[in-house]
Amino acid sequence: MKVYRGIEEFEGKANYAVTTGTFDGVHIGHRTILDRLKQIAQKLDGESVLLTFYPHPRMVLQADSNLKLLNTIDEKTELLEAAGIDHLIIHPFTKAFSRTTSLEFVRDILVNQIGTKKLVIGYDHHFGRNREGSFDHLKEFGPLYGFEVEEIPAQDIDDVNVSSTKIRKALVEGDVQTANLYLGDAFQLRGEVVKGNQIGRTLGYPTANLDLGNPYKLVPADGIYAVLVYLGKEQFQGMLNIGMRPTLKENQPKRSIEVNIFDFDRDVYGQELKLELIKRVRDEKKFNNLENLKAEMEKDKVKCQNILS
Length: 309
Description:
By secondary structure, the protein is α/β, with parallel strands linked by helices. 32% of the residues lie in helices and 27% in strands.
């Protein structure tokens, strides 16, 4: 997959099947669009193109937005590459760009810059200034500018419409199983291992403390999770704690993200870990002392091992 950091970097030289949108989470609804996009590109004897934007438009247009994203831009790029897209254009979203009219977007970007032969969009897709553009607009513009348009109908799971918003809600509630069902894969967290206070080591459960390095990445509800841990291409099992560690009485200013990796004894400071969250085991709790905390962690480990096995 070729990646472009702006529309101006892309030079159209083929028959392109194109889709556009934020694609946060690259969930199963998105993947339906991507599968159809690849089918059309093959019929055209051409290539697939996905045009997305960074930062997320809501972060630019709504100053008070506290939007948290399912994917960092690097995670999204990796997921789209795995989905088999030929070209990914990540265009900077600015207030100036937001004033592009629907006609300008179609004529100048989709047609003149990209060379769209067929446009594939999701259900109820809107684009252009004030989201004025719609499927009806595209059907009007298509014959004028020489491209076809196809709208993918809403995708349902048990009559529940799949959306990034509903996935975020599930994660905020700690329901990673529902989120993973909608995503079609396990929700992931990635971060650099940084030094902590090493109290877990004294309890017999050393933890790797993660710095996600991205304030816009969504972090699920506080609690204990069964996780798969990836160090490079190596996979391990573990249990993850997200929260404020109330038993330790640290008055820490922010939530910690720390993982105990089973059957693992290496120095990984400064390295990146990827976590796939499989199931939430329990809420974060405050215990009367460290002995009670350790006893509960022993139970947590068994539960996580059973889930992961």
